[in-house]
Amino acid sequence: MLIQNTFDKICGLTDITYLFKDGMSIMFGGFGGIGTPPGLVNLILDSGIKELTLIGNDTGFPDIGIGKIVTEKRAKKIIVSHIGSNPNAGKYMTSGELEVEFSPQGTLVERMRAGGMGLGGILTDIGLEEEIVNSDKQTVTLAGKSFLVETALTADVSIVYAKKADPYGNLIFDKSARNTNPLAAMAGKITIVEAAEIVPLGTLDPEEVVTPGVFIDHIVESKGVDWQWVWE
Amino acid sequence: MLIQNTFDKICGLTDITYLFKDGMSIMFGGFGGIGTPPGLVNLILDSGIKELTLIGNDTGFPDIGIGKIVTEKRAKKIIVSHIGSNPNAGKYMTSGELEVEFSPQGTLVERMRAGGMGLGGILTDIGLEEEIVNSDKQTVTLAGKSFLVETALTADVSIVYAKKADPYGNLIFDKSARNTNPLAAMAGKITIVEAAEIVPLGTLDPEEVVTPGVFIDHIVESKGVDWQWVWE
Amino acid sequence: MGLGVEVRHKIARRAAMEIKDGMLVNLGIGIPSLVPDHLPADHTIMFHAENGIVGMGKSPDLGKEDAHLCNAGGYPVTLQVGASYCDSTAAFGMIRKGLVDVTILGALQVSESGDLANWIVPGKRVPGMGGAMELAAKAKKVIVLMNHREKTGSSKLVKNCTLPQTAKECVHMVITEMGVFSVLADGLLLTDLFAPFTIDDIKKYTEASFQVSDTLTVYRE
Amino acid sequence: MGLGVEVRHKIARRAAMEIKDGMLVNLGIGIPSLVPDHLPADHTIMFHAENGIVGMGKSPDLGKEDAHLCNAGGYPVTLQVGASYCDSTAAFGMIRKGLVDVTILGALQVSESGDLANWIVPGKRVPGMGGAMELAAKAKKVIVLMNHREKTGSSKLVKNCTLPQTAKECVHMVITEMGVFSVLADGLLLTDLFAPFTIDDIKKYTEASFQVSDTLTVYRE
Questions:
Q1: What pLDDT score does C1 carry?
Q2: Which of A98, A188, B142, D16 has its CA at a distance of 20 to 30 angstroms from the CA of residue D187?
Q3: Do C128 and B210 touch (CB under 8 A)?
Q4: CB atoms within 10 A of CB C44
Q5: Is A110 on the interface with C (CB under 8 A)?
Q6: D197: helix, coil or strand?
Q7: What is the CATH number of domain A13-119+152-221?
Q8: How many CB atoms lie within 10 A of CB C123?
Q9: A177: nearest CA in chain D?
Q10: Residue ranges of the alpha helices (H) in chain C?
């Protein structure tokens, strides 16, 4: 079916290459590479940009998801909860080539959401007594109980993967590939979605939309993954 | 179809009367009465409990939604963003019979969500310079910018309205009657849902579930509203 | 607001000129709700409601109302094509993140520097701020539609708000039955004049000081 | 963990005894993933995954894998009846609110007072904490399944953790190939003994001090 590009959001990869620049921050959806947009990862690699700050759940696997960008040494800093599945991240961290900010997973995703929701941050007691988490952070006491101040995260560009997008950018996700995608979708100053399918306006049930289109700036169609999953 | 009560959550109104006590806090879903559970409001009225703290978006209309409880003077305190549509609330506030804590709407719903998500609170710049909002609140400075500390809200019991519930308590909502219901559903120490329809386990699409059943303790079937809407 | 139907529509028509295709727009109650009547039929503007609708359409036909599909005021609406529902946190997340392009609302007072007072008359009416603070503080463009004067005759465009402020330096444009003001860094600028009112009329009835645009647009009746 | 299949299943079987119908349970990788094999076929336990699944089922048959339906480790799973998907904030909201009834995980060290170290070996392996801090700090019951000793022979049940702590005083139960310990207010209590190990064996290989239950359960081989 012909899709009308009513909101000028649907585009090709070459139309958005100009958004990517050295030194920028990029937030990505996905969890262990699942739900990370493969075409946009390749676009970033092909664009040649470097010195990136990457923000997302984890560093995927060496050849899967955002891990490909880490492996190619394009990142100078990552803000993640986990790098265990990508030994390259650990190696570059140890060698001093990569700065790593660890955030507990539940805190990290709330920080991403806070950025997308226009909040300054959140208060949590997770990591209150753990130095890796609490160092250099402010605390607030409420009714005698202490909380860490965890700051909101935003990024110059967010890249997300969806099952379906309509021309407004309304998104639904695919099973556990949803994970951090709705959060990254909101937190980018500019958000690009790579959708497995672009559907006509009005075909998504208004009840089932997970990410309202207003958060989305650019929509590209996915060609699927070009990596092999760990279990394959 | 016969619904199996696999998780012992489905019950009648009389089964949960024991949960309601004088002086308790009750959080309610709904926006202008739309999406406030009518059967549970009546249960609260019939139970005779008083001195309540009510937490929710607004006080509905005098004879609609939570407004019925306010009109009957069962509340000693309300935490809301708006009482404009219920003149009784304003009258009791002026006479000193009702304590009113106003929270900007977007802040209020984030406070409700924070309670449900096990957070201590959120940081926002809304109301930073407005005395009705900022009085007695802590501020935090992040990168030179000030934010108010807004505390999480929870309640002894939350009452919510859903379009469909399955026996685990997985919920979907009905159009704009969703509003604050997913937030109230998470923030109660105990949460009761009044559902227009109770459906067998496995019949809700896992993708469309808005509130996961783990947040729900009791499920009752709705008999619909017994009030007239303002536009009728 | 005590204004006639024609004047109300004149104000709404002028406000509609500020809205472009693709924008996300939040409309308050009263005159702002008339704005959609003055948009092109094939527009791609999406309307936002605080109770969790992106893509709120016009009122349904009589008898077609759905009690669970209402605007933030509790009155039945319909959906635009491409609409979606969300919970209240997402509805306000959009506002706080600055994704609402235009909000059009009423006011009790607006100051020279764009401070807005629109939610409380101490000792008289204390309805609560609802979502007004977020909308006023965070929408990309805040347009106030209001009577030029109180019933008592006093100006609602004031040097400084005497009523409690909703948000500071937030208003971008004020449209009254007399004319249109832009709030600029150096104060108010009268950009449009609704005849038969004259610049002298406006000077007489306006407490706030203002400049008159070199390219003043005058609307004949 | 260097334990034989039978021992691993013995540990998993014992852990399964702590799970009751209706509970929400999060299982770590390794031995914890064997726990479902030891639950009744008609159980109503729901399994939680950090990547946004409530109601995660067993591995799919070969060839039936779905790359977009995986556990937190990235391996394909199926769904239980009554399952739902959510985003990562909701997945962790459940944890922080204390709705996870039981979490079963591995550990590097557990202290006498229930402090847990399970995420970092400074200078050697720094994978990041992932969701371990939330699960350890907030699950209603934290059960650790681990080897009793390091490969070097040193006890993993220690007086005080020497590795960086994941969460303080969070562990409720420790199950090793030798026995089961409950973490009580006044210290560790050995409640179950896996023969052929003896209480003396455990005393010899355990750095932490512990009491022995008056009603010690002994499992013969």
A1: 46
A2: D16
A3: no
A4: 18
A5: no
A6: coil
A7: 3.40.1080.10
A8: 7
A9: D68
A10: 5-16, 88-96, 132-138, 199-205
The crossing angle, in degrees rounded to 10, of helices B105-116 and C88-96 is 130
- Is the pair A, D in contact (3+ CB pairs within 8 Å)? yes
pLDDT digits (tens, 9 = 90+) for A149-185: 999 999 999 999 999 999 999 999 999 999 999 999 9
Taking CB atoms and an 8 Å limit, are B110 and C165 in contact across chains?
no
Residue B12's pLDDT is: 97
> Would you kindly state where each structural domain of chain B is located, as residue ranges?
13-119+152-221
Task: Confirm whether the ipTM is greater than 0.90.
Answer: yes
User: Does residue A1 have a pLDDT over 70?
Assistant: no
Q: In terms of CA atoms, which chain D residue is nearest residue A95?
A: D123
DSSP annotation of A224 reads -
Whether chain B has a CB inside 8 Å of the CB on D139: the answer is no
pLDDT digits (tens, 9 = 90+) for D34-85: 999 999 999 999 999 999 999 999 999 999 999 999 999 999 999 999 999 9
Tell me the shortest Cα–Cα distance from B211 to chain D, in angstroms: 9
Tell me which residue has tokens 């600029």. C184
Q: If residue A196 lies in a helix (H) or strand (E), which one and from where to where?
A: strand A188-198
Secondary structure element (H or E) that encloses residue B182, with its range: helix B181-187
Neighbours of chain B (3+ CB pairs under 8 A): A, C, D
Domains of chain D as residue ranges with CATH: 5-219 (3.40.1080.10)
The pTM for the full model equals 0.98
Check: CB of residue D189 under 8 Å from CB of residue D157: no
Consecutive H or E run containing A68: helix A67-71
Residue D43 tokens read as 């159980």
